[in-house]
């Protein structure tokens, strides 16, 4: 059997810096666990724009459709702020998500014990936290038509459209219920059914999917604004949260701070199964290209490394190896290693991106 294939799109800013550490870990699995991937690399975002005048070349898009999984670093940066909207770096990422039809975006927020004092919330509130936000990723206001900036009388109007079909809600709800069954068996669905018709439909469809096919899973509904408040007040009340594209974007950044840093949060974006049974998949950290620290060796590579752990689990059925990698991360944090984003007032000296990679590789060696 041929090796599973990975396409690496490191992107911009700290993307290539954190991805460098992931490449070392992929190499480790080949050398030490006989788990070898056929790795190819290409450009996305500003890097692709610089080379080709587009944030995602058609050849790269075609390659992404063929591989077993895509690993993405981050896209964007101030250098590209003035570009036309249609060629902005972020459009490359949105095209990948849309054309691969990656409708279910898994964003876990887990608080490692060693970081419980680093969260901006009290230790009690976050210690032991393990929640999963399932964000719908291919529809909603990110993609709805009409959209644009139009002339209306003698002024301009900016238009975006929140739009969800029943089938789009149905499929993401199912993915949330399936996940819940493997975890705490609880789903909280968030929308704004009090003010939006799309929210009313969302609530109805999620409830119907539940009643027909997942009555064993505990389901609750919450308005997304109240959900944001509850996420800060007592996040451990949640197991799986399922929500739309925009609310999921906001709620997952908020959830990141429960874990201590945006540099800690991985994600998996999954679509329908391919012919080989694996889901279409893209794995990326939740954070962006962090222009403020790019090129300084300060970036925390853990979100990107944990995204690769998710690839091991969700694309390659290597749950035990994913556990091994997550345990290695947990161990270096317990040993007190911190990148700059995880330094509080305690005077600990931060380590560099590469040093964090070194320590995780050493912990992987120790696990054998
Ligand atoms: P950001 O996530 O890049 O940075 C927010 C803050 O978090 C910054 O202070 C940054 O230094 C810090 N941070 C983020 N990741 C870190 C890490 N791994 N280690 C240490 N610190 C980290 O968000 P932003 O500043 O709003 O956006 C910058 C650019 O990234 C924009 O162009 C935006 O569109 C893009 N972006 C891309 C993605 C993506 O590629 N998936 C996600 C979010 C933002
Ligand atoms: C994310 C990012 C993206 C989003 C941007 C970069 C398109 O913020 O992955 O959370 O808004 O989805
Ligand atoms: Mn975001």
TrEMBL record:
Its EC number is 1.1.1.85. Residues 5-360 form the Isopropylmalate dehydrogenase-like domain. InterPro entries: IsoCit/isopropylmalate_DH_CS (IPR019818), IsoPropMal-DH-like_dom (IPR024084), Isopropylmalate_DH (IPR004429). It catalyses: (2R,3S)-3-isopropylmalate + NAD(+) = 4-methyl-2-oxopentanoate + CO2 + NADH. Gene3D superfamilies: Isopropylmalate Dehydrogenase. Pfam families: Iso_dh (PF00180). GO terms for molecular function: 3-isopropylmalate dehydrogenase activity; magnesium ion binding; NAD binding. Keywords: Amino-acid biosynthesis, Branched-chain amino acid biosynthesis, Cytoplasm, Leucine biosynthesis, Magnesium, Manganese, Metal-binding, NAD, Oxidoreductase. It is found in: Cytoplasm. NAD(+) binds at residues 77-90, 288-300. One of its GO terms (cellular component) is cytosol. Binds 1 Mg(2+) or Mn(2+) ion per subunit. It comes from the Bacteria. Its main location: cytoplasm. The record marks 142, 192 as: Important for catalysis. Its cofactor is Mn(2+); Mg(2+). The keyword Aminoacyl-tRNA synthetase does not apply. Mg(2+) binds at residues 225, 249, 253. Substrate binds at residues 97, 107, 135, 225. Belongs to the isocitrate and isopropylmalate dehydrogenases family. LeuB type 1 subfamily. Homodimer. Catalyzes the oxidation of 3-carboxy-2-hydroxy-4-methylpentanoate (3-isopropylmalate) to 3-carboxy-4-methyl-2-oxopentanoate. The product decarboxylates to 4-methyl-2 oxopentanoate. This is 3-isopropylmalate dehydrogenase. It comes from Sedimentitalea nanhaiensis. The lineage of its organism: Bacteria, Pseudomonadati, Pseudomonadota, Alphaproteobacteria, Rhodobacterales.
